[in-house]
Amino acid sequence: MVIRVALLLALVAIPAVTQAESWSIAASDVRDVRAADGTAYRIILRRPSGEPPAGGWPSLWLLDGDQNFATAADYYARLNRFAAKTVSDGYIIAIIPPDMKRRNFDYTPPAEDDRFQGLGGAAAFRKFVTAQLLPSLGKELQLDPSRRSLMGHSHGGLFVIDTLLADPGLFRTYVASSPSLWAAPNHLEGGIAALPRRLGASAPSVILTVGTQEKGGPAGAFDGVAANRALAEKLSASGLKVRFRPLENENHGSAVLPAIGQALPEVFAR
Q: Each residue of 177-221: pLDDT tens digit?
């Protein structure tokens, strides 16, 4: 009986758990945009403060926003706090596909191996970005078209490279983190061969990162560092300014975190 009373008293002493308010990232905004085919994408914005500069705000367009937006927004906030003289304010615009199946389709050119199914929608997704998102958000948010950058990881990184090769003038900086080069090697080679005649007077810059532990994967014997180094050399030979950065001791899952840290200071450099 004494034990029961003591237990009841202990339970009474436990403070009640109350429902807390939802936590959100400061200076962020969420909206849904529907593509021409009816697919709904979620867009998350990290808003700058104050009035836009004369030419408009710089912007980073970030793929896989559900996984990468919070990291990018927090990193930028720290960068702006401790290195404000080196970076300018601007928008981070993250795009979130409705599900993983659609993500894999949207970010990839047609597959060249029967083992890889559900790929091939990069051209249509790029049209959605260029014909719908860039014009509408560019006008609404007062973005500088000469200071916009694109970043993606894995399949997203492949989309970045594919977009660079298809229409290099769309973005000033292309950031490809651990791109899935194994998915469409022949397609990429064709794009690289055609790249010199597609470059304008002002060629974009490229940041190419990969973890040093990235080996194997869906394509079997794939050496991520060797493949990305070879790509960097080919892009440089085509006339692009390429920064190739192997990330020590990072694997395919972890490499995107330091890649974001590598990209933001350059994307928003004053």
A: 999 999 999 999 999 999 998 987 778 999 999 999 998 777 667
CB atoms within 10 A of CB 189: 12
Q: Which H, E and C letters describe the chain, residue by residue? A: CHHHHHHHHHHHHCCCCCCCCCCCCCCEEEEEEECCCCCEEEEEEECCCCCCCCCCEEEEEECCHHHHHHHHHHHHHHHHHHCCCCECCCEEEEEECCCHHHHHHHCCCCCCCCCCCCCCCHHHHHHHHHHHHHHHHHHHHCEEEEEEEEEEECHHHHHHHHHHHHCHHHCCEEEEECCCHHHCHHHHHHHHHHHHHHCCCCCCEEEEEEECCCECCCCCCCEHHHHHHHHHHHHHHCCCEEEEEEECCCCCCCCHHHHHHHHHHHHCEC
Average pLDDT in the chain? 90
CA 226/CA 224 separation, integer angstroms: 6
CA distance 191 to 145: 24
pLDDT at 207: 98
β-sheet bridge partners, residue 206: 174, 242
Convert the pLDDT of each residue in 89-134 to its tens digit.
999 999 999 999 999 999 999 887 777 788 999 999 999 999 999 9
* Model pTM above 0.70: yes
Identify the residue with better confidence: 212 or 21.
212
User: Rounded to an integer, what is the distance from CA 153 to the centroid of its chain?
Assistant: 6
